[in-house]
Write a structure and sequence with these properties.
mainly alpha
Length: 256
């Protein structure tokens, strides 16, 4: 009798232990499943890596697809004709020429040999409008790709583009009425223009001939001229391409 009771008790304990073990295993499996399902396969905040910027240049991590230069040139020529024929053109020309009196950099206009605002403002304005027409054409033909439309241009021409766009209200009125878009964003700018590049091909396809070498200065020559300018500026206490000086304006300081 005692032996039978002991056997039945052992059997019950065995069943209990087995159930308990299965319960622990199920709970462990459930926790594992919940843990896996709670871990997202990708972060919802993930963003593509931004372009690597070096100085005033941006090295893009992907290849930019742009429309054919022939198509861009043809459309840009049409856009430029629209701008020149607009009611706002004369005022845009006049107000843009005044802009360098308000603001100019040490690294744009000054790299032009024997730079003279009274003589160079007109030709530079013409080049700036051509660039804006080219950018507008690329933007339109690429389906609104801002990155593709930010073309590489020469520094003095780019500075005049800024001068045109500073006439904000006039530019907005004109472009809205003509159904075009001026495109320009500093965070998309790329410098280092060279003859034979995409910008040059589009420029030629528009029927404007060769870019004027007085204003279209390639990357290597730009660097050489900037080094000369910096040395000259430093001789009178202006450092860092015009970003720093030691003038106190409290007394007349000797020059040289």
């Amino acid at each position: 009798m005692l032996a039978r009771r002991w056997a039945r008790r052992s059997a019950r304990e065995g069943v209990s232990c087995a159930v308990s073990a299965r319960g622990r295993a199920n709970r462990s499996l459930s926790r594992l499943i919940r843990g896996r399902s709670a871990t997202p396969t990708s972060s919802p905040r993930a963003r593509p890596a931004p372009p690597i910027r070096q100085g005033r240049s941006a090295i893009m991590t992907t290849t930019i697809a742009r429309p054919a230069p022939e198509a861009v040139g043809a459309r840009a020529a049409e856009i430029l004709d629209l701008i020149r024929g607009s009611d706002e053109y004369a005022r845009l020309d006049e107000s843009t020429r005044l802009y360098p009196d308000c603001w100019a950099t040490f690294t744009g206009y000054p790299i032009i040999a024997q730079w003279d605002l009274s003589k160079d403002a007109g030709p530079l304005f013409a080049e700036a409008l051509r660039v804006l027409a080219l950018k507008s054409a690329v933007y339109e033909l690429s389906g609104g790709d801002e990155e593709a439309a930010e073309l590489v241009v020469s520094a003095p021409v780019d500075e005049m583009v800024h001068a045109v766009l500073a006439q904000y209200t006039l530019s907005q009125t004109m472009t809205e009425r003509l159904g075009i878009r001026f495109v320009h964003m500093t965070d998309q700018e790329r410098f280092g223009w060279r003859r034979g590049d995409y910008t040059h091909e589009c420029y030629a396809a528009a029927g404007w001939g060769e870019p004027d070498p007085r204003y279209w200065i390639d990357a290597a020559e730009t660097d050489r001229r900037l080094r000369i300018l910096n040395r000259r500026s430093q001789s009178v206490g202006i450092e860092n391409a015009g970003r720093k000086h030691d003038f106190t304006f409290n007394e007349l300081q000797p020059v040289g």
